[in-house]
From TrEMBL:
The lineage of its organism: Bacteria, Bacillati, Actinomycetota, Actinomycetes, Kitasatosporales. GO terms for molecular function: 2 iron, 2 sulfur cluster binding; metal ion binding; monooxygenase activity; oxidoreductase activity, acting on paired donors, with incorporation or reduction of molecular oxygen. CDD domains: Rieske. Iron-sulfur subunit of the cytochrome bc1 complex, an essential component of the respiratory electron transport chain required for ATP synthesis. The bc1 complex catalyzes the oxidation of menaquinol and the reduction of cytochrome c in the respiratory chain. The bc1 complex operates through a Q-cycle mechanism that couples electron transfer to generation of the proton gradient that drives ATP synthesis. GO terms for cellular component: plasma membrane. This is Cytochrome bc1 complex Rieske iron-sulfur subunit. It is found in: Cell membrane. It holds the Pfam family Rieske.
Length: 356
């Protein structure tokens, strides 16, 4: 026997109790509402809830142990130790241990939080109608009440083991960032206050060597308007510490007509208008390589700090903090340019430990 089916005989769709319009043939895009809530096992079985609590706490404890392992790796493994790990091959023991321990620490915190939310926190879905951006007092009070309800249902205050292990893991993870400061290298101390020129004296001067020809220079080799780069004699490019030393010892030479010099002290440090300045910019340490002979201005290409070499390398533009250090030079008995002491100021950028 056949029966005629009408819309009145259709069963009530899920969500109708929430006040949403039921989908029909006439309006297939109507809001179907929320499905009926189905309790989880942890909602009805306290033993299952306690088991989930222990699992979450274990994840947080593993995170704490991994963070401790991250810090211990800095003590255990030297920077240059290489190990073979299948299938990666040869890798840095330090980098591998740091990556693994930090990854486990962060993963366990995330996995623990997700497991906690999915098994122990309330999972009731609550619809919220759209409202203007500026909420009224009723909405704000409702949000505050929902927050309090959510905090209570999360078990954060009641489940002490979860709370304490979460706080412990979150407190330890930032310590891994503290030990990373070691990779910044040793503190500069007074290393920038003395260069390779510090070994020079009036009785035992150091010859200036041309960076391009690797030969000593005579005063007549430096012509007005030119810019010449120099280094101390004995500093060879194949030396293991060449890059470290040249970063402090690099020198640039200019020759300016004596009547154009504006700073008497700077003129005394030079020889017949030949001035020797540090090539290292006093802003962030870039090498200066641009010179304008008409104005006697030297320009750093990195951030456009500009120095007046005719006026003691005074800063006339840009972010540099102080003038370029100058080297005391003269000539020896054969007419070669030599240095008789170190720079008059520490080379390189400003830093708070500067004593001069």
């Amino acid at each position: 026997m056949s029966h005629e089916i009408s819309d009145d005989n259709l069963p009530e769709a899920h969500g109708a109790s929430h006040g949403h319009e039921v989908a029909s043939h006439d309006d297939p895009f109507a809001d179907p509402g929320l499905p009926a809530h189905e309790p989880r096992r942890t909602d009805i079985d306290e033993r299952a809830a306690q088991r989930a609590e222990r699992q979450v706490s274990l994840l947080f404890i593993v995170s704490m142990l991994a963070t401790a392992g991250f810090i211990a790796s800095y003590v255990i493994f030297p920077i240059d130790k290489i190990v073979t790990i299948w299938p990666l091959g040869e890798v840095s023991a330090l980098n591998f241990s740091l990556g693994m321990t930090l990854g486990v620490a962060l993963f366990c915190i995330g996995a623990g939080a997700v497991h906690w939310a999915r098994t122990l926190m309330s999972d009731h879905e609550l619809p919220a109608e759209r409202h203007p951006i500026e909420a009224d007092d009723e909405v704000r009070n409702d949000v505050i009440e929902q927050f309090r309800t959510g905090a209570a249902e999360s078990g954060f205050g009641r489940r002490k083991m979860l709370r304490n292990t979460l706080i412990g893991s979150m407190a330890l993870v930032p310590l891994s960032g503290v030990v990373l400061l070691r990779d910044l290298g040793p503190l500069p101390g007074k290393s920038l206050e003395h260069t390779g020129w510090s070994k020079a004296s009036k009785t035992d001067p150091i010859p200036l060597v041309n960076m391009n020809t690797n030969k000593p220079m005579k005063a007549e080799d430096i012509v007005v308007g030119s810019l010449t780069f120099a280094k101390p004699e004995g500093l060879e490019e194949d030396a293991h510490d060449f890059q470290v030393q040249i970063a402090k010892d690099a020198l640039m030479l200019v020759r300016i007509q004596p009547e154009d010099l504006k700073d008497a002290k700077s003129a005394e440090l030079g020889f017949e208008g030949i001035l020797a300045y540090s090539k290292i910019c006093t802003h962030v340490g870039c090498p200066i390589s641009l010179y304008e002979q008409q104005t006697h201005h030297a320009l750093c290409p990195c951030h456009q700090s500009t120095f007046d070499l005719a006026d003691g390398a005074r800063v006339i533009f840009g972010p540099a903090g102080h003038p370029l250090p100058q080297l005391k030079i003269t000539v020896d008995d054969e007419g070669f340019l030599v240095a008789t002491g170190d720079f008059d100021e520490p080379v390189g950028p400003s830093y708070w430990e500067r004593s001069r």
